[in-house]
Design goal:
about 170 residues, alpha+beta, Yope Regulator, Chain: A, 7 helices, about 45% helix
């Protein structure tokens, strides 16, 4: 991670600490973040979906991540071998930030509402009002959580468990 930090700092970004990780910004805008895992460390590009990825090294962590992309490194050799390419990606990310480009994110209404939850919303006006009062991110988190269950019985159980939180105006992880 120290070598990766040196590579990033050589690109002229400002180093800050955000979310407990070294974060590198350009004129206040987040560009990249270094984070460590057991098997690798990664350079996370906040707007990685907008990068060209000519070398096909950017990884979308999960299918639900819309904007961020990672370059993963398992050892020092990989960082050294990819140093010039990594710097090129960082410079492209800086240009994306300078240009003001934004990743077009899916809106809450683009997410489907599981039938089980829609039935609850239709029958319970206070639940519907409380859910609609949540921030879009909290709404998406609930919809994603409910829809990930494969069986209707599991979706029902998840919904029942979350109703008190929704009525309290809290998000899934609040």
């Amino acid at each position: 991670m120290e070598l990766l930090r040196t590579v990033v700092l050589d690109c002229g970004l400002t180093e800050e600490l955000k979310w407990g990780c070294p974060c590198y910004t350009f004129q206040g805008g987040n560009v990249v973040l270094i984070h460590g895992f057991k098997e690798y460390c990664a350079l996370l590009f906040f707007k990685g979906a907008l990068l060209n990825d000519e070398h096909k090294i950017l990884i979308q962590q999960t299918e639900n991540v819309q904007a961020g992309r990672q370059i993963r490194f398992k050892n020092l050799r990989e960082i050294m071998e990819l140093e010039l390419i990594t710097k090129a990606y960082i410079h492209e990310a800086i240009e994306v930030e300078k240009s003001g480009l934004k990743v077009v994110l899916k809106k809450t209404e683009d997410f489907s509402i599981p039938d089980e939850f829609q039935t609850k919303l239709d029958k319970n006006l206070s639940l519907k009002k409380a859910f609609e009062s949540l921030t879009p991110g909290r709404q998406r988190a609930y919809l994603f959580h409910f829809s990930q269950a494969k069986q209707s019985k599991t979706r029902e159980a998840r919904i029942e468990k979350c109703i008190p939180q929704i009525l309290d105006g809290k998000g899934l992880n609040d």
